[in-house]
């Protein structure tokens, strides 16, 4: 018997997804007697004039039965003589695309239903793109309702051409196209006599035979840490699931992001000590020395994982509220939950044509490529190299709702991460002086929008006024974290110098974020530096020594950026 196959059914509304799975369960005699009897009774008052309505086996919500559509994701487990299956029947309506994405996140294979009367629709394209985005490599396109077009081979060939063009556009690796009738059972569990021109196998036979294990192995060993186990003062173990590779007692591993090295002292699998463990195993790993490891860290060996803070991601936006650049979210990547900001929407993708379009905001169910900057560096990798550390979700910090799901496409290098705003020789100063602060009236939150990045050197004229900021023509900037000071005179960069050489000259001073410092004398400056060096609480320090509203303000807007 082949291993477990996890698959989803998806497609447009009323393409027959629930009916298909229901027919498989019914024909394969995978129902209990009471389930079969209940189905026959429910079907008598259904929409098929007393004939078996196979969709009722999965459309369990009253609203689903009333509307004749799937709303929630319905999971079913079943076993044939050849294989075990878990199927997620996902909704087809655009309104419930996020529900479909949840189902796709767990699957190895997708069955996408295509209505033979309509061909490939926009929602078909959207679901295929989302499945590909979520890492699904195996696709079955079931051209359904062949009975309603008289089992017309020519019409099927036209739709087959559309599907192959879509598969080429999305670079789908494994595609199977099967003509079926979910209601009549044609090519569902057995070959159809009504479609003699189709020489392939029915859907169930294909599902029983397809090998989804033939995928590129992820390089090296890695285990995201889910929990630190301290049952007593003598034992400290790190618990998690091995996502790739194998590890043995005595081997040296690296803890990320600290980059500390240690040897594996012991491995516990199901509470029992083992010499080694491999992919998929939930384990507790004890090291031979103390290392800086907590939930969200990664234990690794020969994986080439990176520690980074900025990356480019392709996301599916699932929130009812619009996405606008500058919004802060919780980012869940691996086992790490961290705050971060969507700093830029590079472009959105037209679901129908694949065209890249400029976008200042995203609506619900749109797909886009965005830039995300985290508050600190964490272990990650691009999705195609290490799946678990390359997939993410964005969580709204106010509602705690999942706003988006996506995958890491590109990781920015150290140089790309924080390009300096001010540069002179070896002196570099970062700053957020030119970010705009907006109050989003729709979401009732304050967000930041980063304008086009620019680097300034001595003599360059700077933008002293924006929508939400206005600086004087003469002022000083102190970038404390970079140890650099900038003197601005007449709206231009006059001097860039080390902070230790800086002295108060009677002009206003702001920090690297544009907040006014409460410094009006050389004595105030010395007192400020002393307080900064000894500060134990950042919020208390800045509340005492800086003011937001002197040169900055928050601009109201509705749901998108003002042009």
Short description:
The protein has 563 residues and is α+β, with helices and mostly antiparallel strands. It has four domains: 5-209, P-loop containing nucleotide triphosphate hydrolases (Rossmann fold, 3-Layer(aba) Sandwich); 221-301, Elongation Factor Tu (Ef-tu), domain 3, CATH 2.40.30; 310-417, Translation factors (Elongation Factor Tu (Ef-tu), domain 3); 422-547, no CATH class. Strand 11 and strand 12 (260-269) form a beta hairpin.
Distinctive features:
563 residues; alpha+beta; Rossmann fold; Elongation Factor Tu (Ef-tu), domain 3; 4 domains; eight-stranded antiparallel beta sheet; six-stranded mixed beta sheet; 34 strands; globular
Plain-language structure description:
- With about 575 residues, the protein is an alpha+beta fold.
- It folds into 4 domains: about 5-210, P-loop containing nucleotide triphosphate hydrolases (Rossmann fold), CATH 3.40.50; about 220-300, Elongation Factor Tu (Ef-tu), domain 3 (Beta Barrel), CATH 2.40.30.10; about 310-415, Elongation Factor Tu (Ef-tu), domain 3, CATH 2.40.30; about 420-545, no CATH class.
- It is about 15% helix and about 35% strand.
- The strands form 8 sheets. Strands 7, 8, 9, 11, 12, 13, 15 and 16 form an 8-stranded antiparallel β-sheet that branches. Strands 2-3-1-4-5-6 form a 6-stranded mixed β-sheet, with helices on both faces. Strands 17-21-19-18-22-23 form a 6-stranded antiparallel barrel.
- The radius of gyration is 29 Å and the shape is globular.
- It starts with a strand and ends in a 6-residue tail after the last strand.
């Amino acid at each position: 018997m082949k291993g477990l196959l996890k698959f989803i059914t998806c497609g447009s509304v009323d393409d027959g997804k629930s009916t298909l799975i229901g027919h498989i369960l019914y024909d394969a005699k995978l129902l209990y007697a009471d389930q079969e009897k209940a189905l026959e009774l429910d079907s008598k008052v259904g929409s098929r004039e007393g004939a078996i309505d196979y969709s009722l086996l999965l459309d369990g919500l009253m609203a689903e039965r009333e509307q004749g559509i799937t709303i929630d994701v319905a999971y079913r487990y079943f076993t044939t003589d050849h294989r075990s299956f878990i199927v997620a029947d996902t909704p087809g309506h655009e309104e419930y695309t996020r529900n479909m994405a949840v189902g796709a996140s767990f699957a190895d294979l997708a069955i996408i239903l295509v209505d033979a009367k309509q061909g490939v629709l926009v929602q078909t394209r959207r679901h295929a793109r989302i499945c590909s985005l979520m890492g699904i490599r195996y696709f079955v396109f079931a051209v359904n309702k062949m009975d309603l077009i008289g089992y017309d081979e020519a019409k099927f060939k036209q739709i087959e051409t559309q599907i192959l063009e879509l598969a080429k556009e999305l670079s789908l690796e494994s595609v199977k196209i099967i003509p079926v009738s979910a209601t009549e059972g044609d090519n569902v569990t057995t070959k159809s006599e009504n479609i003699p021109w189709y020489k392939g196998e029915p859907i169930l036979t294909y599902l029983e035979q397809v090998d989804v294990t033939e995928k590129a192995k992820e390089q090296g060993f890695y285990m995201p840490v889910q929990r630190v186990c301290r049952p007593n003062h003598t034992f400290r173990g790190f618990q998690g699931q091995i996502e790739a590779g194998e590890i043995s007692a005595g081997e040296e591993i690296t803890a990320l992001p600290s980059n500390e090295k240690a040897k594996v002292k012991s491995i516990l699998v199901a509470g029992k000590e083992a010499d080694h463990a491999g992919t998929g195993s939930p384990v507790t790993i004890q090291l031979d020395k103390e290392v800086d490891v907590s939930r969200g860290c990664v234990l690794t060996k020969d994986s080439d994982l990176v520690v980074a803070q900025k990356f480019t991601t392709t996301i599916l936006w699932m929130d009812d509220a619009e996405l606008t650049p500058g919004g802060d979210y919780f980012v869940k990547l691996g086992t790490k939950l961290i705050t971060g900001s969507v700093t830029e929407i590079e472009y959105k993708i037209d679901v129908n044509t694949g065209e890249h379009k400029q976008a200042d905001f995203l609506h619900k169910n749109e797909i886009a490529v965005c830039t995300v900057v985290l508050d600190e560096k964490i272990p990650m990798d691009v999705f195609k190299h290490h799946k678990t550390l390359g997939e993410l979700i964005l969580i709204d910090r106010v509602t705690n709702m999942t706003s988006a799901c996506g995958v890491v496409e590109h990781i920015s290098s150290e140089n790309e991460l924080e390009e300096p705003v001010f540069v002179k020789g070896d002196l570099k100063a970062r700053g957020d002086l030119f970010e705009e602060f907006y109050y989003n009236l729709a979401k009732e939150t304050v967000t930041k929008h980063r304008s086009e990045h620019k680097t300034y050197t001595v003599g360059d004229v700077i933008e002293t006024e924006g929508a939400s900021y206005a600086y004087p023509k003469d002022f000083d900037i102190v970038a404390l974290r970079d140890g650099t000071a900038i003197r601005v005179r007449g709206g231009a960069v006059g001097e860039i110098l080390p902070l230790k050489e800086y002295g108060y000259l009677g002009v206003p001073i702001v920090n690297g974020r544009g907040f006014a410092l409460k410094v009006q004398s050389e004595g105030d400056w010395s007192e400020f530096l002393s307080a900064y060096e000894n500060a134990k609480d950042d919020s208390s320090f800045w509340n005492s020594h800086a003011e937001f509203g002197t040169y900055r303000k928050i601009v109201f807007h509705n749901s998108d950026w003002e042009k």
